[in-house]
Design a protein that fits this description.
The complex is a heterodimer of chains A (113) and B (122). In chain A, 0% of the residues lie in helices and 51% in strands. Chain A contains no helices and 13 strands. Chain A is globular. By secondary structure, chain B is an all-beta fold. In chain B, the strands form two sheets. In chain B, strands 2, 4, 5, 6, 9, 10 and 11 form a seven-stranded mixed sheet that branches. In chain B, strands 1-3-8-7 form a four-stranded antiparallel sheet, with no helix packed on it. In chain B, a hairpin with a 4-residue loop joins β7 and β8. Classes of the chains: A mainly beta (113), B mainly beta (122). Chains A and B meet through β7 and β12 of A and β10 of B.
């Protein structure tokens, strides 16, 4: 199985400041035939299911604010929240869907400083 | 609007079985694979498997093979996940989630059910 490792485990950021979450996969999730990274990011608020933010490593899901962006390729990926809002307090998970079974990072908890 | 609505919470004794349902609406039920994912209290996300609602074909995570069964009833646009021989460490929220691309079982999950809490306790 591909192991997904996120860092940090938690971070506290002031409102309006940038939050950066890293995700590393134990093997590349870049499909060379279509040059796509099979990497997604999800947001989960307390008591709710996850919601899809980003897929193909950098494509925002419809309706997701543009302060959320994804980058990276191969084995190293980043989710950036450019200007943290109060409603962004949540746990964020990365997921690879390159190889079955799809696997998730352990999550990064984002709080307000 | 696209929705996945799951059945209610369950409390089960060790060694028994649980069957969770996931009713789809707002899209073609047979057009998109459905996955099942669980989340133990305070923990991360673990994939159990998928079902192709069109053919009924399934693929299960190695860890759950022999203990999980995924089925569907196309007449009521509902998928089911049954987990047998329950243990205390099966206590978790179980989610169904839709594959975002039609007829593909390897994609991100764009729609999630609200989750079903399953508690295994004697």
């Amino acid at each position: 199985d591909i192991v997904m490792t996120q860092s940090p485990v938690s971070l506290a950021v002031s409102l309006g400041e940038r939050a950066t979450i890293n995700c590393k996969s134990s093997q590349s999730v870049l499909h060379t035939s279509n040059n796509k990274n099979y990497l997604a990011w999800y947001q989960q608020k307390p008591g709710q299911p996850p919601t899809l933010l980003i897929y193909w490593a950098s494509t925002r899901e419809s309706g997701v604010p543009d302060r959320f962006s994804g980058s990276g390729s191969g084995t190293d990926f980043t989710l950036t929240i450019s200007s943290l809002q109060a409603e962004d307090v949540a746990i964020y998970f990365c997921q690879q869907y390159y190889i079955t079974p799809p696997t998730f990072g352990q999550g990064t908890k984002v709080e307000i400083k | 609007q696209v929705h996945l609505v799951q059945s209610g919470a369950e409390v089960k004794e060790p060694g028994t079985s649980v069957k969770v349902s996931c009713k789809a609406s707002g899209y073609s039920f047979t057009g998109y694979y459905l996955h099942w994912v669980r989340q133990a209290p305070g923990q991360g996300l673990e994939w159990l498997g998928w079902i192709n609602p069109n053919s009924g074909g399934t693929e299960y995570a190695l860890k759950f093979r022999g203990r999980v069964t995924m089925t569907r009833d196309t007449s009521i646009s509902t998928a089911y996940m049954e987990l047998n021989r329950l243990r205390s460490d099966d206590t978790a929220i179980y989610f169904c989630a839709r594959d975002m691309s039609p007829r593909v079982g390897t994609d991100a999950f764009d729609i999630w059910g609200q989750g079903t809490m399953v508690i295994v306790s004697s």
